Amino acid sequence: MKSNVEVLNNLKYLDELPEAFCILEVLDPDDSHPSNYVIKYANNELSRLSGFNKDKILNATFDDIFPNSKEKWFEIIKTTAFEGKKQNVIKYIPLLKRFISTDLYRMEDGYCGCIIKEVIGYKDSLTNCLSLDGFKIRAEEIITNNPKLDFVFWYCDIKHFKFINMNYGYDEGDHVLSFISHEIQKYLSDYEIMGRISGDIFIIMSVFKNHQYSIDRFNELLLSSEKKLEFEVSHSHKIDIAAGAYISYASTRESIDIIRFIDYAHSAEISAKKEKGSYFEFFSNELFEEEKRADEIIKHLPSALSNNEVDIYLQPQYNYLEGFVSGAEVLARWKHPEFGNISPAEFIPVLEKSGHIFEFDIYIWDRALKFLKRLNNLGYFIPVSINLSRNDIFSNRIINVLINLTDKYGIDRKYLHLEITETSYINNPKQLIDVVNELSDNGFHVEMDDFGSGFSSLSMFKDLSIKTIKLDLNFMKNLRGNNKSVGIISSIVRMAHNAGVSVIAEGVESKNQAEFLKNVGCFNMQGFFFSKPLPKEEFTKLLISSSLGDQQKEEHECLFDDLVKAFNNSDYLFGKCIGPSVVVEYINDSIEIVYANDEFQMLNMSDFSTIDFKNPLSSPFEESEVKVIEEAIKETVKKGTYKLEHYFKRTDKHFRIKYTLITRSSANAFIFIELSDLS
Q: What is the pLDDT of residue 482?
């Protein structure tokens, strides 16, 4: 090649190529210094790409034209020039602020041809941040060229960003992302880079000096841009950022694994996201152990399913009004031969994050339906509820899987209740609506779990084909003396009944809570007050022992349906009625309050938690009045409607009582009692 100068002079046709091209001569095969690689030919496109004219490029070293290239890159060129091994290298050129892809091939011994193209896909078009691939390449280059420095990786997430898109539109969401990223990039140093993984997820690499410096730098970059954003956007939505950080120490860095560094930072971000406001947390040994444990769980999952280590338990659901088991929620339990009992609170999030939850849930659903078939064979037809994770709902297989499973065991689909959480609505409301409506059209009973725990309850309630809501257990806390909680729960129950939706309260832990729920019209409950989750055999025994018998069950169900209809049509009775009003149940010559409006509670001068439910009328009425009322109730049951001109005085007011029969069976009856103010 050296003696054939004419070859180089006759390469003018290469000037017309749309891609940059050059020929490098390796002066000394034993020397990898950048000055040892000289450009012997360059076409016009290389001149345009580099910004140098051809006279400046020819006989210059490659490092003169593209400075700060790493020695590893020149080793690749040398290998190609002398061994003929074709290779491709993608690298970032700081001077050009762009990525280039270089195809290398041997022209003759000691000479290497280079076809250079700009790579577009390593930048994010919206924010001008690096893409994940671009971030990985650039981070590797910086660490390789600075092997003695410590680096910190930040994984940053804008909290509740989906609400910005939902409430203010995607253009406003894009503006937020663009503004924050551009503000941060303006202040990045030479050793700091920023990437956008997806959506509202950003990653940043910076030199690590100490923990406090990193925290201060986080506040300087992210929180300052957050404050400036408040004056830029056209809404008042508070922007909070959660960030997790992983430190890659030079002294312990055995390899440069950027994806692993980002994953560790992500683990810290998950923990930081649980805190209020903007928050920053470092990856710790505890988080490392959690990651290690998560890997073990995922690794053992296939054998756990094949060896029957995972089985279902059932949390009984009770009809508290009649005192029998009305259904059950299916829960997963994992007994590992080495780790012992693994809590669902631990393994469910791991499986969701890793993408294995759908496979796991199908296994649980199959076991649940197999057990339900066994109950059917024993003559018991009760609904069981199974949980659908967000991953399940957005799988394109979900409908067919559930249809095939119910067909496999011959189960009437109305007995398979599907629990979804309202947080699923946030991710993709339109798709969730479509899936839920299709499930409902195919005969499945869809329940909304944890109702009231998030931000979208009313929207979901309006848009989705929901047949049951499950009150979030947090509503069960501190009922005594908490008038606001009492009012909220009472309103939710009334709203659900008016919409023809049934209600189950979960997390019931005391008789006080159960009695309160009964008196606001919520009769179906579950919680430790009734039973802990039970193995299949124990649940079966409980179901048999609590059975009312088929005839009484059927009669009760009709009676209950009538009562629900009465509640659904109770706008006059309970919403617009001026005076105090209650619904009482007359059963076995005893009287119990099952519903009371706010006016009656005020008359009682107490909340439900203080009512003597065995003698419910004893608090607002005198003993002589109670006897008259009890007789009137008995007459009402017999005659259907009964008016009693009974007067009494309470808090300087005079009342008259009217009785109306709602519905009755051979076992019991429900009576509406209205008190008219005659003052």
A: 57
Distance CA 115, CA 102 (A): 6
Residue 51 CB neighbour total at 10 angstroms: 10
Distance, in Å, from the CA atom of 87 to the CA atom of 115, rounded to the nearest integer, reads 11
Is 517 in contact with 609 (CB distance < 8 Å)? no
Record the tokens describing residue 391, joined without a space. Answer: 């991953």
Integer Cα distance of 179 and 479 in angstroms? 45
Q: Quickly tell me which residue has 């006759």 as its tokens.
A: 10
Residue for token digits 């410096």? 213
State whether the Cα torsion 334-339-343-348 is positive or negative.
negative
User: For the residues of 383-416, what is the DSSP string, one character each?
Assistant: -EEEE--HHHHT-TTHHHHHHHHHHHHT--GGGE
Q: Name the nearest CA neighbour of 333 among 532, 515, 83.
A: 532
Sign of torsion over alpha carbons 163, 168, 172, 176: negative
For 646, residues 6+ apart whose C-beta sits below 8 A from its C-beta are: 625, 628, 629, 632, 656, 657
SS3 of the chain: helix, strand, coil, percent, to 5: 45, 25, 30
Alpha carbons within 13 angstroms on the beta-carbon side of residue 458 total: 3
Record the pTM. Answer: 0.52
User: In one letter, which amino acid is 432?
Assistant: L
Retrieve residue 576's tokens: 């617009």
Beta strands in 141-200 (DSSP E): 151-158, 193-198
Helices (DSSP H) in 532-616: which residue ranges?
Answer: 536-546, 550-568, 598-604
Tell me the two tokens of residue 534. 């039970």
Q: What phi, psi does 578 have (nearest 5°)?
A: -75, -40
What is the β-pairing status of strands 590-596 and 581-587?
A: antiparallel
Strand pairing report for 310-319 and 87-93: unpaired
* SS3 label, residue 517: helix
User: What tokens appear for 621 in the block?
Assistant: 């009425």
Residue owning tokens 């280079």: 114
What is the Cα–Cα distance from 209 to 223, expressed in whole angstroms?
A: 20
Helices (H), 84-160: 132-145
331 and 532 Cβ atoms separated by less than 8 Å: no
Per-residue pLDDT tens digits for 391-416: 888 788 899 999 999 999 999 999 99
For 218, residues 6+ apart whose C-beta sits below 8 A from its C-beta are 154, 243, 245, 280
pLDDT 10s digits, 517-570: 888 888 899 999 999 999 999 999 999 887 644 434 444 444 545 555 555 444
